TrEMBL record:
<dbReference type="Pfam" id="PF01149">
    <property type="entry name" value="Fapy_DNA_glyco"/>
</dbReference>
<dbReference type="GO" id="GO:0000703">
    <property type="term" value="F:oxidized pyrimidine nucleobase lesion DNA N-glycosylase activity"/>
</dbReference>
<dbReference type="InterPro" id="IPR000214">
    <property type="entry name" value="Znf_DNA_glyclase/AP_lyase"/>
</dbReference>
<keyword id="KW-0326">Glycosidase</keyword>
<keyword id="KW-0238">DNA-binding</keyword>
<keyword id="KW-0511">Multifunctional enzyme</keyword>
<keyword id="KW-0863">Zinc-finger</keyword>
<dbReference type="InterPro" id="IPR015886">
    <property type="entry name" value="H2TH_FPG"/>
</dbReference>
<dbReference type="Pfam" id="PF06831">
    <property type="entry name" value="H2TH"/>
</dbReference>
<dbReference type="GO" id="GO:0003684">
    <property type="term" value="F:damaged DNA binding"/>
</dbReference>
<keyword id="KW-0234">DNA repair</keyword>
<dbReference type="GO" id="GO:0140078">
    <property type="term" value="F:class I DNA-(apurinic or apyrimidinic site) endonuclease activity"/>
</dbReference>
<dbReference type="InterPro" id="IPR010979">
    <property type="entry name" value="Ribosomal_uS13-like_H2TH"/>
</dbReference>
<keyword id="KW-0227">DNA damage</keyword>
<feature type="domain" description="FPG-type">
    <location>
        <begin position="222"/>
        <end position="260"/>
    </location>
</feature>
<dbReference type="InterPro" id="IPR044090">
    <property type="entry name" value="Nei2_N"/>
</dbReference>
<dbReference type="GO" id="GO:0008270">
    <property type="term" value="F:zinc ion binding"/>
</dbReference>
């Protein structure tokens, strides 16, 4: 599932493959961009912002993409067979003399002026993996609504940019509170904010996330994806439920013993 660490790693891979070279191929396969051609433009950089990707080109143009739930970018060498899904799922192709980047199942793909990037990412809170990470501002935003359930507040990208369902469940477990706990009831919210940043930082270069420190298969995450299986800490069956307003409900995992309700 793409979260901040996945997006950071994707941006790093795209930047390494494309930056500094002019495009020799440009194919944007969404209706509103079907006539747009970036061929010949030099790629300046590819930057992650929370869960968003910003590919910047000379002449002040940015290609903004979002991976959503199952989108991905794959980088291929010349003549290498594309991998990532069937051809009908391809939404973007950016090629240079040395590499071809292919975007699959991208729910968001748009061109905008680089000077107007705030239009699509200006609402985001401090980026957990960004150079301007500000834990104090992230804490202030997280605590702005003390009655809000922690599980909802962590997923709100206006508070901290980069957390998704996996880290939401793991952070609540590590804080020893159920996801529906009001933010204002956290004993040390500043520690949770710091922990969120450390977890994403530690995992940004890994293909397989690890929050437990145990690399054995099936033991890398405390509760996420472990419904009905024993908690790695106490052995109680992990539970699965939903959290959030009706239109935005997302699954959440927790251990009823390690994360008791107040």
């Amino acid at each position: 599932m793409p979260e901040g660490d996945t997006v950071w790693r994707t941006a790093h891979e795209l930047h390494t493959a494309l930056a500094g070279a002019p495009l020799t191929r440009s194919d944007l396969r969404v209706p509103k961009l079907a006539t747009k051609d970036l061929t010949g433009r030099r790629v300046l950089d590819v930057t992650p912002r929370g869960k968003h990707l910003l590919a910047r080109f000379e002449d002040g143009i940015t290609l903004h993409s979002h991976l959503g739930m199952d989108g991905s970018w794959r980088v291929h060498a010349p003549r290498e067979r594309w991998r990532g899904g069937p051809a009908h799922q391809v939404r973007a192709v950016l090629g240079t003399a040395g590499h071809t980047a292919v975007g699959y199942r991208l729910p968001v793909l748009e061109l905008l002026r680089t000077a107007e990037e705030d239009r699509v990412v200006g609402h985001l809170g401090p980026d957990l993996l960004g150079p301007g990470w500000d834990p104090d501002e992230a804490l202030r935003r997280l605590l702005a609504d003390p009655a809000r359930p922690l599980g909802e507040a962590l997923l709100d990208q206006r508070n901290l940019a980069g957390i998704g369902n996996v880290y939401r469940s793991e952070l609540c477990f590590l804080a020893r509170v159920p996801p529906e706990t009001p933010v204002g009831e956290l004993r040390a919210p500043e520690r949770l904010v710091a922990l969120a940043q450390r977890l994403l930082e530690a995992n940004r270069a890994r293909l397989a996330r690890n929050t437990t420190g145990d690399r054995r298969r099936g033991n890398t995450l405390w509760v996420y994806g472990r419904e009905h299986r024993p908690c790695l800490r106490c052995g109680t069956a992990v539970r699965l439920g939903e959290l959030g307003p009706p239109a935005e409900r997302r699954i959440a995992y927790w251990c009823p013993r390690c994360q008791p309700a107040a």
